[in-house]
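Readers outside the structure-tokenisation community will struggle with the description of the input data as it stands. What matters is that the chain and its backbone geometry are given together, residue for residue. For illustration, here is how one protein appears when written out as sequence plus structure tokens:

…
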Amino acid sequence: MREIRGCGTALITPFDDHYEVDYQSFRALVSRQLYAGIDFLVPLGTTGETPCLEDEEKEIILETVIELNNGQVPVVAGAGSNSTKKVISNISRLSKYKPDAFLVVVPYYNKPTQEGIFQHFKAISESTSTAIILYNIPARTGTNMTTDTTLRIAELENIIAVKEASGNYEQISEIIRLAPTGFSVFSGNDDVTFPLMCTGAKGVISVASNIAPSPIVKMTRLLSAGRTEEAAVLHHRLMPLFKACFVESNPIAVKSALALKGLIKNQLRLPLTSSTMQTDRLMESTLKEIENL
């Protein structure tokens, strides 16, 4: 298996004026990411509005990414659900496209115990030989996967990494410090990529790189090379973008920015709605701030 590290983009899913998937725009977005030198691609994550996608749409999206990528970079496909059986079914259905790994979120809404989280990922690990990346984002799931649980799951076969978006630096730092050999930590929040990579994280699964892939790729590569002073300059320049991406529920602000750039229609499927005028103005000014990066 190819090593997965650096900057991976959690791809948005564009929709047309009738709220159907705009595959033409999606192909252009994927090609734009590859042209920018992205390190890996992450379709079908939360940023892709997967709770509102049909199974057939998910297959076409992943097939499109695999086709356009043509083996250039690793592909990590989202397969999460709050049902263990559904995750296993998702993985089974999407495995024919041969992604390099699957991204699986901690079950949401159910509020499982730590033992339930472990058993969830154990069953998933045993169902496939494809690599699995865990995803901890308690602000969306309602449950935090603790350090101990993450490290316990990390010992399972084919569990290779965690996307950590808990916002708890102490927790993430402990996972990095105690992780078994071959287990990686990725930042799940753009604004903490710099400090996390400085202390051992392998990269970021980024939302902001939908908008500005090249400078974020450059920042993570500088960090991987230990060139922290140069990376810090980019980090500070990009911070307004990192903050602006989350002024409304993700991916509302990201779609606003991409629409302003003329890359997509500013459409989301309910229950998400398109950006407010205030968000549009913020994204417009933010794009001007970073246009020379």
Observations:
- The beta strands are 6-10, 40-42, 76-78, 101-105, 131-136, 159-164, 184-187, 203-206.
